[in-house]
Specification:
Strand order of the largest sheet of chain B: 3-2-4-5-7-6-13
Number of domains of chain A: 1
Order of helices and strands of chain A: HHEHEHEHHEHEHEHHEEHH
Pfam families (chain A): TPP_enzyme_C
Keywords (chain A): Oxidoreductase
CATH superfamily of chain A: Thiamin diphosphate (ThDP)-binding fold, Pyr/PP domains
Largest sheet of chain B: 7 strands, mixed
GO molecular function, one term (chain A): 3-methyl-2-oxobutanoate dehydrogenase (ferredoxin) activity
Bound molecules: thiamine diphosphate, iron/sulfur cluster
Largest interface: A-B, 47 and 44 residues
CATH architecture of chain A: 3-Layer(aba) Sandwich
Order of helices and strands of chain B: EHEHEHEHEHEHEEHEHEEHEEHEHEHE
Shape of chain B: globular
CATH topology of the largest domain in chain B: Rossmann fold
CATH class of chain A: Alpha Beta
Shape of chain A: globular
Structural class of chain A: alpha/beta
Oligomer: heterodimer
Protein name (chain A): 2-ketoisovalerate ferredoxin oxidoreductase subunit beta
CATH architecture of the largest domain in chain B: 3-Layer(aba) Sandwich
Radius of gyration of chain A: 19 Å
Domain Thiamine pyrophosphate enzyme TPP-binding (chain A): 92-218
Number of strands of chain B: 16
CATH superfamily of the largest domain in chain B: Thiamin diphosphate (ThDP)-binding fold, Pyr/PP domains
Largest sheet of chain A: 8 strands, mixed
Number of domains of chain B: 2
Number of helices of chain B: 12
CATH class of the largest domain in chain B: Alpha Beta
Distance between the termini of chain A: 43 Å
Number of strands of chain A: 8
Chain lengths: 311, 396
Amino acid sequence: MEIPENVKKRLSIPAEEHFYSGHTACQGCGAALGLRYVLKAYGRKTIFTIPACCSTIIAGPWPYTALDANLFHTAFETTGAVLGGIEAALKARGIKVKGEDGVMVVGWAGDGGTADIGLQALSGFLERGHDAVYIMYDNEAYMNTGIQRSSSTPYGAWTTNTPGGKKHFLEKRQKKKVIDIVIAHNPPYAATASVAYPEDFIRKLKKAQKIPGPSFIQLFAPCPTGWRAPTDKSIELARLAVQTAYFPLFEYENGKYKINMPNPKKEPKPIEEFLKLQGRFKYMTREDIEILQSWVLREWEKLKKLAEVFG
Amino acid sequence: MAEYKPIRKVVSGNYAAAYAVKHARVQVVAAYPITPQTSIIEKVAEFIANGEVENLQYVPVESEHSAMAACIGASAAGARAFTATSAQGLALMHEMLHWASGARLPIVMVDVNRAMAPPWSVWDDQTDSLAQRDTGWMQFYAENNQEVYDGVLMAFKIAETVNLPAMIVESAFILSHTYDVVEMIPQELVDEFLPPRKPLYDLADFSRPFSVGALGTPADYYEFRYKIAKAMEDAKKVIKDVGKEFGERFGRDYSDMIEKGYVDDADFVFMGMGSLMGTVKEAVELLRKEGYKVGYAKVRWFRPFPKEELREIAESVKGIAVLDRNFSFGQEGILFNEAKGALYNTSARPIMKNYIVGLGGRDFTVPDVKKVAENMKAIIEKGELDVEVDWYHLKR
Ligand SMILES: Cc1ncc(C[n+]2csc(CCOP(=O)(O)OP(=O)(O)O)c2C)c(N)n1
Ligand code: SF4
């Protein structure tokens, strides 16, 4: 569809669509939205690699594709390694990578494929310094195989292998801070982003495009199916995750931290506002909520301190 | 065409592989160290450090699984890609071996045959590579360092013609670390033989969007498999043609997938793969002088399996002694199993006996071959087997 010039001018994100309708995501899927934004930022000259995850399906079965870009499907744990291989091949062939006019090599993997089985390849990718972008879309569980926990699943969440019962729920561990593990590698650029803040996300994608070396973006991407949440609440949930400081937005660039919250001075909203819209937290007691709340605030204080000291 | 004057170098099997990688103008090497493969990738790194190669990207990955994944990414993005490994490393790659063939990527790998642990062993044994037989990789077993070098060059040409990956297999230490004269081919002649790769698809081609490896529903998956099966079958002719061309250009003919010696008038032949067959060939010469009517059949290519050539051999002999430096637990030696299977629906039914030899680097020598010959002779005279599978070296 042609977008009139006057409308284009008013848009704060690129008008071009490179993600086709007819993809096979659930309604309200944060991951699908995220893919759409990545394609808006990078356009046609992009090589994606996607491991086993919901996006394998979202991108479409053979011979279809929902992406106006080239896509290589890969094994669950190999995103980081395949990115390295693609980048090496382009370099050996004298093809420009990254930058405004170069080919963008993009890994698009879920939290399972990143925080768990793919962590080793991610680490190798960061450490070797490939010119590519790794995006972890964080829907906080293994959705493709039917909602099992990942190490990115938060404390207190129901999943099919951490079910809630009359007495207990089984997810007793706090969310793994993948971004902290990434930053420990001291990459040129790492950031968190959210589908509720597309301008911020696209700005970060553009930054990752310009900065040489490996970039990592952890994108908060609600999954109404797995979170047992209404399909029209995805953006609201993603926004609340930021406003409660459960998933704060920040950047790490050349050793410096920068928090990019919509209202940085404002006190975080209570975590309950984020929890109450989702069926996956229904087994939590008052006490459990307090445990999660204090973890959130502790992590938030830590981040603020980092930004203060290394800002 | 320039005249061929070979460059003779005394090199290990591993260095022979590294030189072939250089001469093949490989563009991406992604690898992870494991004994006894390590000196291949070290030598390649040295070529880069000394500026002896152009445009070769070396990706020192964090595991073999990632080595194969990176080669897959590189090959999908149009580069000529290479890796090398052994035993545990190859086993760790297993998932990605399927990925390489399924995505129709002509990656070439050297596997240095090494026994699987436990117990730990760094010595020769073919079970590591043979356990990968159903991954859709072509497999060439080298007898000596020369065949490692030649094998890698031919493998790229064959792989890039049929769009399937290929594995060149050499023995731990017996070849990998043993020095021998290898006749190398001047670069410009290799370039004529092996022109730059023309990929089946190229991720850097943005003329239309496409995806590789998407979900294949039951309506399509079957055909994808058939195409690999077909490519493997077609590879037989390509292997023979390339082997013949190699012979015509460089004097070493590889047009037979099974290398034969003294088969025509032999009562029985020894059949096996890899460096083991060097010993056998030596022994056959001696046995012939002693009046034994024996020959040999060295299986060069295990995948695709040269059924037709095997049938021809089987038709002319009374017996086949299959020497397996490998074992499939719960069954028998893997080559034995394959060879018997290939002959079942034919009129060729020689007596076949399986000798399990040399596992984990146990020596298999000329006198051993002679003992096998005596045993085979007795079996053929009697017209029946003693045992079908003989654990030849067991300390009884
Ligand atoms: C080696 C391997 N183990 C297990 C699987 C099965 N598997 C496919 S997708 C998936 C979960 C993916 O979870 P995540 O990365 O969080 O992405 P999501 O499905 O949530 O989008 C699993 C376990 C696999 N494909 N490969
Ligand atoms: S299960 Fe969740 S992540 Fe997967 S397609 Fe549906 S909404 Fe998206």
